[in-house]
Design goal:
- 45% of the residues lie in helices and 16% in strands.
- The longest helix has 30 residues.
- The protein is an alpha/beta fold and 485 residues long.
- Helix 3 packs antiparallel against helix 5, helix 5 crosses helix 15 and helix 9 packs across helix 10.
- The chain has 2 domains: 242 residues, Aldehyde Dehydrogenase, Chain A, domain 1, CATH 3.40.605; 190 residues, Aldehyde Dehydrogenase, Chain A, domain 2 (3-Layer(aba) Sandwich).
- A 7-stranded mixed sheet has the order 10-11-12-9-8-13-14, sandwiched between helices. A 6-stranded mixed sheet has the order 5-4-3-6-7-15, sandwiched between helices. It has a 3-stranded antiparallel sheet with strand order 1-2-16.
Length: 485
């Protein structure tokens, strides 16, 4: 085993200045390796991605068991789809398309610049840093690294201390698959994370809360490191007046209560026509009971990651109840010992409650009535721009209104979550919900320098624009100003 890897795998509760030095040593090692080999071939990049694909296939049961242990109960079926399958999809998509993404992209040259040609050359940026969250530790590792390796970069990963068993498995997986100067996975606490984001990466991707995202951007600014921030926020569900509630309920319940709501693009609140509020609540209750019978005892229902998050969610509900808000817990009481909070609906909560001010990140769905679709759109626009927006309607007019009059990171119409699984759609936030995009070609481009190149060929028409200026220059400029396209 590489001695550098051994240093990084020491228990992070005992991390000192030496561990920070080891981060810097890895960075220097990767930067040096990049200098020696700055443009990996398509064959090399495909081989790297294939190593990860084979590693996931070989270790999928171990990864699932680690996730189950970290969460104190993580649904295996959810892991297979929302962690393993989508990770493999990202890697396979990048492997299949990277040769095409690497090609020169021709750019037209205006008449005044003839004779010449121009193109964009995608080039690896160097060493990429990726900070991985705890809620989907496999997918939120493999999604970004697919783009970073496809683009030809070296990668350092900071794995989450809140999913330590999974992080340990992933660190070993990377150590077995790659030399440290190509990919290194680091485990550690918040102090290690702070040292990590201060490294002068050529690009840094962070996934986490908006509050920590601000701190990461500030740290990166000292090195002028470009950042991609995948944050969160309060993603609304809008049920238009014509929405089919029975059809909508299945995907809303799935999108909200997958991973017990611990999903950055989970629906955070629902906006429902006021005259159909009780109808929607009843249909939603029935759908929850169908998908998660006896939720707090059901292996299909995931636990909350730790007691700190459980306590935060319980405070939200206690505050709502103290304010006289109707709270509907489906299938009984919370199970503190198992860190299980049942699927819960909060009906028409006041906007000053914390669950309406902060991202919920748990199995609680506020339901707010509205009078007109215009009012629902205003409600969304009066708040920070969300990472995702969900609209249920069969009306082209309602689709156009919501799509053109709101700004969000992404949208799914008549479904939830699934836009994130379309590799050819860029994934990213806007405003306080994030900065930048990745997935598919967007990820390749994010982790590339799209270098513009201009090449003169033969006669230089631009010579007529050089001094000394005179009658010919005047005539040429008059023509170009009037007619050039």
């Amino acid at each position: 085993m590489d001695p550098l890897y051994s240093i990084l795998r020491r228990p992070m509760s005992a991390h000192t200045t030496a561990s920070v030095s080891s981060l810097e040593a890895v960075f220097v090692q990767q930067r040096s390796a990049f200098s020696r080999h700055p443009y990996p071939t398509a064959v090399e990049r495909r081989a790297q991605l294939d190593r990860l694909i084979q590693a996931i296939l070989a270790h999928q049961d171990e990864i699932a068991a680690a996730l189950d242990r970290d969460f104190g109960g993580r649904c295996l079926a959810e892991v297979r789809y929302s962690e393993i399958f989508v990770s493999l999809q990202s890697l396979r998509h990048a492997k299949r398309h990277l040769k095409k993404w690497m090609k020169r992209r021709r750019a037209p040259v205006a008449l005044a610049l003839q004779m010449a040609k121009a193109w964009v050359m995608p080039q690896p940026v160097g060493v990429v840093g990726i900070v991985v969250p705890w809620n989907y530790p496999l997918f939120m590792t493999m999604g970004p690294i697919a783009g970073a390796l496809a683009a030809g970069n070296r990668v350092m990963l900071k794995l989450s201390e809140f999913a330590p068993t999974t992080s340990s498995v992933l660190a070993r997986l990377f150590a077995e698959s790659f030399a440290p100067d190509l990919v290194t996975a680091v485990e550690g606490d918040a102090e290690v994370a702070k040292a990590f984001v201060r490294l002068p990466f050529d690009h840094l991707l962070f996934t986490g809360s908006t509050t920590v995202g601000r701190q990461v951007m500030h740290a990166a600014a000292d090195n002028l490191t470009p950042v991609t921030l995948e944050l969160g926020g309060k993603s609304p569900v809008v049920l238009a007046p014509d929405a089919d509630f029975s059809a909508a309920a299945g995907s809303i319940v799935y999108g909200k209560f997958l991973n017990a709501g611990q999903t950055c693009i989970a629906p955070d609140y629902a906006l429902v026509p006021a005259n159909r509020l009780e109808e929607f609540v009843a249909i939603l209750q029935a759908e929850i009971e169908k998908q998660y019978p006896r939720a707090t005892e059901n292996r299909d229902y995931t636990s909350i990651i730790n007691e700190k998050q459980c306590a935060r969610l319980r405070r939200y509900l206690e505050e709502a109840q103290a304010a006289g808000t109707r709270v509907i817990s489906i299938h009984g009481e919370a199970s503190p010992a198992a860190r299980r909070i049942p699927p819960t609906l909060v009906i028409d909560p006041p906007d000053q409650l914390r669950l309406m001010q902060e991202e919920i990140f748990g199995p609680i769905l506020p339901v707010k009535p509205y009078q007109t679709l215009d009012q629902a759109v205003r409600y969304i626009n009066e708040r920070p721009r969300p990472l995702a927006l969900y609209l249920y309607t069969r009306s082209s007019q309602a689709k156009d209104q919501v799509l053109t009059q709101t700004v969000s990171g992404g949208v799914s119409i008549n479904d939830t979550l699934l836009h994130i699984a379309v590799e050819d759609l860029p994934f990213g936030g806007v405003g306080t919900s994030g900065l930048g995009h990745y997935h598919g070609r967007a990820g390749f481009d994010t982790f590339s320098k799209l270098k513009p190149v201009f090449e003169r060929r033969g006669f230089a028409s631009g010579a007529m624009l050089r001094p000394p200026y005179g009658r010919l220059h005047d005539r040429v400029m008059r023509f170009l100003i009037r007619w050039s396209r």
